[in-house]
Amino acid sequence: MTEESKKRAPKWVKVTAIVIACILVLLVALVGAAAIVWRNEIATLSSFKKVAERDHAHNDGAVYRMDVAGDFYFDDFLAQGGASSDGELIDFITNSITRGLIQMEISQSEIACSAFTAVTPSGDRIFARNYDFSMTNTALVFTEPGNGRYASFSTVDLQFLGMDQDKDVEGLINKITCLAAPYAPLDGINEKGLSCGIFMSYQGGELDEEGNEITVATDQQTDRPDITSTTMMRAMLDYCATVDEAVAFIEQYDMHDSAQTSFHYMIADATGKSAILEWTNGTDNTDNDGSARTLHVIYNDDDAHIGEREGACDYQWITNFILQPGYYEDDDKAGLDRYDEIYTRLSATDGVVADENAAMDILQAVGRRTWNNDDGNGITVHSVVYNLTQKTVLWVANEHYGEEAYTFSFAL
């Protein structure tokens, strides 16, 4: 036997080496393919970071920042007819973002909030908003989808994506779930200076077995395409530059409130125009068929039918009750005390605020940790002032007004 034949490796070794090499090549190919298919999701996940710590003693959740890469499939969402329920929305997000591999979640709950519009002495238009709820984690979400859609900033309560409000957002699966954040904005501003916010409206007069009123969600049923509460907010931020454009867009859709909860909305733009959007049918005692509701738009320059003081003002303000005249039989309106307080402060200066900090002072005055709460939402999770003229954001977490670690400023 030659020396060469003695050194030759057994055939099975060669076969094993070939198999291993093929497996490695396949793995590299799969990783490469995944990197291409999920390149935007990977980029978005890499941007997810904590920017403010939680503090259980103050009932603070953590605050995160997320810069969303790509278009997050929202054009596709509208093209396939939108969604008429949370379940349909969840199915679309799951199939689009994770290709069906990870189940995602979007839900809503009973939130209480306040907002108003104002103007500075130099003419800058202001939209200011408190988000009142309970301790929760929050995400500051930046999007720049391109293809004719506008860049925007929005705030998202991560509890509505299934995140535990008592814990930090940790682990890959939880962070992947947060990729759904662009579909769940609570307020925001886009690069054109359009801003919007969502507010609980507590509609419906039916009673449950214990005698408690049941909130009835808006659930229009026509032949128009469908849209849900937060996806309507996303659509306005992505596609609309003015209040008029936003209203024209919304009128094309059937509205379906999320989680069997009713909402109304405020929008404002850089021209100084604002509007409150409400879906109602009859009075609070009879408004128990969500499918029968129709859209009513209350413009800031055409709202004398709402009330004398509203008609006399160029600015608007909102809390948690329906503003349609004759809707209630008495003054048992959720958030009426905060509504009156905001008006008192704005009317003292005819709707003029010195600057964004002065607008923030009004939000602080109705912050829920010190306010005499009329419901169970004892915490203002965030306060935000949007300058619609300058396209800037002043954002404060958990009523830490004036504290640098909890105050964030951004410009679009």
Q: In the CATH scheme, what's the topology name?
A: Penicillin V Acylase, Chain A
Q: Between the first and last Cα atoms, what is the distance in angstroms?
A: 79 Å
The counted number of beta strands is 17
Broad CATH class: Alpha Beta
The appropriate CATH architecture is: 4-Layer Sandwich
Helix content: 25-40%
Structural class: alpha+beta
Largest sheet: 9 strands, mixed
Shape: globular
Cα-based radius of gyration, to the nearest Å: 25 Å
Determine the mean pLDDT: 90
**Structural domain tally:** 1
- Put simply, the count of helices is 11
Sheet-strand content, in percent, reads 15-25%
What is the element string, with H for helices and E for strands? HHHEEHHEEEEHEEEHHEEEEHEHHEEE
Low-confidence stretches: none
Q: CATH superfamily membership, which one? A: Penicillin V Acylase, Chain A
Strand order of the largest sheet: 1-2-5-6-7-8-11-12-13
Oligomer: single chain
Topology:
Layout: H1 3-7, H2 11-37, H3 39-47, E1 49-52, E2 63-68, H4 74-79, H5 86-97, E3 112-119, E4 125-133, E5 138-143, E6 152-157, H6 172-177, E7 187-190, E8 195-200, E9 226-228, H7 229-239, H8 243-250, E10 254-256, E11 263-268, E12 274-280, E13 294-299, H9 308-311, E14 317-318, H10 336-347, H11 356-365, E15 379-387, E16 392-397, E17 407-411
Helix pairs in contact: 7-8
